[in-house]
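Input chain follows. Return structure tokens only.
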Amino acid sequence: MNESIERGKLHRYLSEHHVGSIAGVEHFASARRMWAGTPHEAFFESLWNQVSDDQNDLELLLKKLGYVPHGLARLAAPWAQLLGKINVLNPLRQKQKTLTQSQIDVLIGLLNAKLSMWRTLLLMVDKEPQLDEGLLHDLQHRAQSQIHQLTEFSDTSWAERFR
């Protein structure tokens, strides 16, 4: 079966993930601010930079496909950004509380959602010539690395939050 991809659905899918990336970058920025001045500052700065770079690549992908963020996604974007900024998971930015672990868990979840998007797009490469297989493989590996980095951080620093 050689059916083509319905471009409107692909557009909505990428727009939805773009909104998620806006909130995600803000969640990572919030974590970066929270860990500023600690021994973990450089780690969270690096993660924020990596996630920001991935969002830029998603925006370039949208542009390459000739898409602008979908109408509803554009309306939701400022709210997603605000929610990420507020840090509803840890509004007081307490580093030694279980809320901090919950925030880390959510960040890992956001990275897993991004990884799932890259994997889904890789499945479409032979049906959508504008998708860059090499870039998508790179983005998939980057997401896997970010998940590994954050999981490793969580595993090695859990005592800071629970003792």
